[in-house]
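Database export, one record per block. Field names are fixed; values are copied verbatim from the stored entry.
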Amino acid sequence: MIVARIPATSANLGAGFDCLGLALRLHNDVALIEDGPFRVEISGEGADTLPRDRANLVARTIFRYYEAIGRPTPLFSLRMLNRIPMTGGLGSSSTAIVGGLLVANRLAGEPMTRDDLLRLALEIEGHPDNVAPAMLGGLVLSVVEGGRLTTLQVPLPDTLRAAIFLPGFTISTREARRRLPTRVPLEDAVFNVGRAALFVAAMATGQVDLLRTATQDRLHQPYRQVLFPAMPRLFEAALNAGALGVWLSGAGSALMALARDDAGPVIEAFERAARTHGVAGRARAVDLSPTGAELVDEG
């Protein structure tokens, strides 16, 4: 049995639309058992809803991997333990892709490097802001040019803690993408470019007080707000409770905030604001993960 452990991720981080992502210390496990018969066992999050046949994303990723290396796919079965909430916005699909690639690569004798696997993950997922931090860990800046992926890991200050709010509803990534305009004003583009750069600089230099400005956005969150009307009120509550910065995680529906040392007041503020504005959901603390996906067991 080959087991991969893959972290949850938060993408965009406000201004860094489709290029910034952050790994979280909350993991899914993917176990591959060599030989048949083919079956998929799932426990934890999504156990009642995820497919258990060859349509399962982990299984599809393994088939895609063997197609990429030009070999027939061997017989296998899968066992998954999902700890990452399926609410949306915490990269659960990226954990499936990255986990499937890691276990398949080990089974094949590791003909692909980590960079090769990341490029294939990008082909499968379509954009890098979740798969890159899931594979590499920490804060990752990703740029795609002509189909070629460049990634840079940015240092994380040790004092940061995260709070996530998980609404009781999901937002379809496809619907969230559909809400985005095909053109944006130059002023808004400049607004985001400066803040995305500020986010990276603030993290790299430890000047985390700049994150309140650095997480502001005009490219995607205002357009997606129609899918989560109370979002600005929860943002405001988190910031008033001491959050350094707050954003819609990925396409949502999860929200994420960073705090210094203790995320407790931010968690309480999220939940209080949610009750006030009639939003079902729960908040929780989660640490940032400096490490990405890894193989943890074979037997």
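Remark 1: The longest helix spans residues 186-205.
Remark 2: The two ends are 5 Å apart (CA to CA).
End of record.
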